[in-house]
Design goal:
It is built from one helix and six strands. By secondary structure, the protein is mainly β.
């Protein structure tokens, strides 16, 4: 596996929207194909994080835990 595809915890990122920055400060992250992907732990018992980005999200297993994955381009704009 390429080192860039491994999920890691990293320093908080700066986003145009401060609410996003706060939510992603503890996210797992990786870079794939020139885009940044961030993963937030998912639980159906908790509110969906960042509902304004719902249509950009996908749910994936990382280890035994489900995560909500968001992808961003080089300008930190959400992408599908």
């Amino acid at each position: 596996m390429d080192a860039q595809t491994v999920w890691r915890r990293g320093a908080p990122l700066r986003f145009p929207n401060a609410r996003w920055e706060l939510a992603f400060s503890c996210a797992l992250r990786r870079e794939r194909g020139g885009r940044l992907e961030l993963a937030l732990p998912y639980s159906p018992a908790r509110p969906w994080p960042l509902p304004e980005l719902f249509c950009f999200a996908r749910v994936e297993q990382i280890g035994a835990q489900p995560y909500i994955i968001y992808a961003f381009d080089e300008k930190k704009a959400p992408i599908f």
